Amino acid sequence: xxxxxxxxxxxxxxxxxxxxxxxxxxxxxxxxxxxxxxxxxxxxxxxxxxxxxxxxxxxxxxxxxxxxxxxxxxxxxxxxxxxxxxxxxxxxxxxxxxxxxxxxxxxxxxxxxxxxxxxxxxxxxxxxxxxxxxxxxxxxxxxxxxxxxxxxxxxxxxxxxxxxxxxxxxxxxxxxxxxxxxxxxxxxxxxxxxxxxxxxxxxxxxxxxxxxxxxxxxxxxxxxxxxxxxxxxxxxxxxxxxxxxxxxxxxxxxxxxxxxxxxxxxxxxxxxxxxxxxxxxxxxxxxxx
Length: 289
Ligand SMILES: Nc1ccn([C@@H]2O[C@H](COP(=O)(O)O)[C@@H](O)[C@H]2O)c(=O)n1
What we know:
Shape: globular
Largest sheet: 7 strands, mixed
CATH superfamily of the largest domain: HAD superfamily/HAD-like
Keywords: Cytoplasm, Hydrolase, Magnesium, Metal-binding, Nucleotide metabolism, Nucleotide-binding
Distance between the termini: 12 Å
Radius of gyration: 19 Å
GO molecular function, one term: magnesium ion binding
Strand content: 15-25%
CATH class of the largest domain: Alpha Beta
Enzyme class: hydrolase
Number of helices: 11
Number of domains: 2
Helix content: 40-55%
CATH architecture of the largest domain: 3-Layer(aba) Sandwich
Number of strands: 11
Family: Belongs to the pyrimidine 5'-nucleotidase family.
CATH topology of the largest domain: Rossmann fold
Order of helices and strands: EHEEEHHHHHEHEEEHHEEHEH
Structural class: alpha/beta
Bound molecules: ligand L45E5XJ5
């Protein structure tokens, strides 16, 4: 057993199955592997020193690009809809229209602010966004072994890319599916491009982007990382899946949601702000001892 899997923050419904999948992935090697990961609160930290870290949306919401009046409205939306997002008493079907409502209202407010493209970079630099501890090893290991990493996010692609670019890990093997901003000829935000991605339509997003999975059709093993039950469908477009290992970060409302996470994810990481488990599995699968 990989030692990191015996840590107290690690929970598994069936440890024997997890071991079997990891061994099968190791046998197939790095050439058969692809990694699919959510971004906010999966690759980024949930909290640091007891303070919540921002999502892509929050980076903008709290920035100098947004008027005080608009900040209040965005905060009200967060206070209304985030508790719904993490409410274990509501089904995905019940939450879905409300999540669409949240994203739609928030994006309309951001568009009203006519955010300038060239100010995204300084705003990300000044923000308190943080990738999880061990992120460098994670991204570098995938690059070293030419393992494709798909970051599949309901956040904001332009902000997400800036976070990983500034961290020096936007390597050529990284591809992003997310909500991208559409700027006018003066570089001011005028809309969001394409179909909205929220936390409960990642399956549709995966199927719409079939070209990406077609390119990776020889990679039948998937390591999936997420923090929401909606993230479980991110790999639905993968061709001829042979093995999938799903790692779920359980960051908030831990006791209430543990059972459902244990049913859905192979490995559940409770209040773990690191990439240690994923890194240990990758090390093993890519041939390390
Ligand atoms: N206006 C909004 C809408 C969503 N969020 C959060 O973003 C997260 C989605 O991004 P993933 O990378 O995790 O797919 C989601 O969990 C929402 O809580 C937000 O902060 N503001």
